[in-house]
């Protein structure tokens, strides 16, 4: 038993799990996504230079990663404060902030946002995908990586005493690199020491989630306390989805609000619509996975903020939940997905 057992760790300290309320388990508030910049389609360079105008909003939704300015959520603290106040008003209680080392985590800013708005914010420990690993990170042993992650949870990080309450999002690509495999093993070792929640960003291939679970399992991770993110753009076949669900992790649909015809990170992928996401959730609930499903928006670009005409952090609560209720998911099941499942996942063993 540690001092963390039975508690949830927010950027303002430990809280009782019952205090969390409705929880988005995969968001970003303060981050930079510069690592994922992709050049605009030929001919669109001028729009990409100056996109924050009404007439360019559709372009920005279709090409969010092709405008550098769009990749710096960290520049929008005042808008983020307004977003969180609106989220509370819409019935939200908690946000898991998945920004890890490599995409510019800013813990003091998260603490200030939590103080200003009353929303519980839980910060993420660990490392994002390979291309953001420094040379020093790549050279670290699994033991050293484990110690770093454990310390981020127990003592705080980035020169602060602000402690992380989950490990992740831990980034992986496809195929998974050697450096990412080391981080996954360190994640499992840290989790087995701490009894803490873990959340994973898989590569964009249907085989990636299962491969990650195998690596974590072999290293002693607790799959029942692990979330597999971004399933909406990763597994499309219902049979494969059920096979993966059977491995025992939480199943996260976290790109609600994302609308994109050509997904630049894998052009073979057809990004689903919100209606298709709801249909998949209804399928998983029907198949008996209502205790495993989680939801979020994974906001990581500016155009998705309401300030810029985006859907904001309250989209699920305001628009998606009513739709779920018309598609065979009961209010009791919605409460499981938004309250009970996050609470169980986030509570330290
Ligand atoms: C911040 C982050 O990693 N978001 C995931 C974007 S993706 O397109 O689903 O990989």
From TrEMBL:
<feature type="binding site">
    <location>
        <position position="298"/>
    </location>
    <ligand>
        <name>a divalent metal cation 1</name>
    </ligand>
</feature>
<keyword id="KW-0479">Metal-binding</keyword>
<keyword id="KW-0378">Hydrolase</keyword>
<feature type="binding site">
    <location>
        <position position="201"/>
    </location>
    <ligand>
        <name>a divalent metal cation 2</name>
    </ligand>
</feature>
<feature type="binding site">
    <location>
        <position position="26"/>
    </location>
    <ligand>
        <name>a divalent metal cation 1</name>
    </ligand>
</feature>
<dbReference type="InterPro" id="IPR032466">
    <property type="entry name" value="Metal_Hydrolase"/>
</dbReference>
<dbReference type="GO" id="GO:0016787">
    <property type="term" value="F:hydrolase activity"/>
</dbReference>
<dbReference type="Pfam" id="PF02126">
    <property type="entry name" value="PTE"/>
</dbReference>
<feature type="binding site">
    <location>
        <position position="230"/>
    </location>
    <ligand>
        <name>a divalent metal cation 2</name>
    </ligand>
</feature>
<feature type="binding site">
    <location>
        <position position="28"/>
    </location>
    <ligand>
        <name>a divalent metal cation 1</name>
    </ligand>
</feature>
<dbReference type="GO" id="GO:0008270">
    <property type="term" value="F:zinc ion binding"/>
</dbReference>
<protein>
    <recommendedName>
        <fullName>N-acetyltaurine hydrolase</fullName>
    </recommendedName>
</protein>
<feature type="binding site">
    <location>
        <position position="169"/>
    </location>
    <ligand>
        <name>a divalent metal cation 1</name>
    </ligand>
</feature>
<feature type="binding site">
    <location>
        <position position="169"/>
    </location>
    <ligand>
        <name>a divalent metal cation 2</name>
    </ligand>
</feature>
<comment type="similarity">
    <text>Belongs to the metallo-dependent hydrolases superfamily. Phosphotriesterase family.</text>
</comment>
<dbReference type="InterPro" id="IPR001559">
    <property type="entry name" value="Phosphotriesterase"/>
</dbReference>
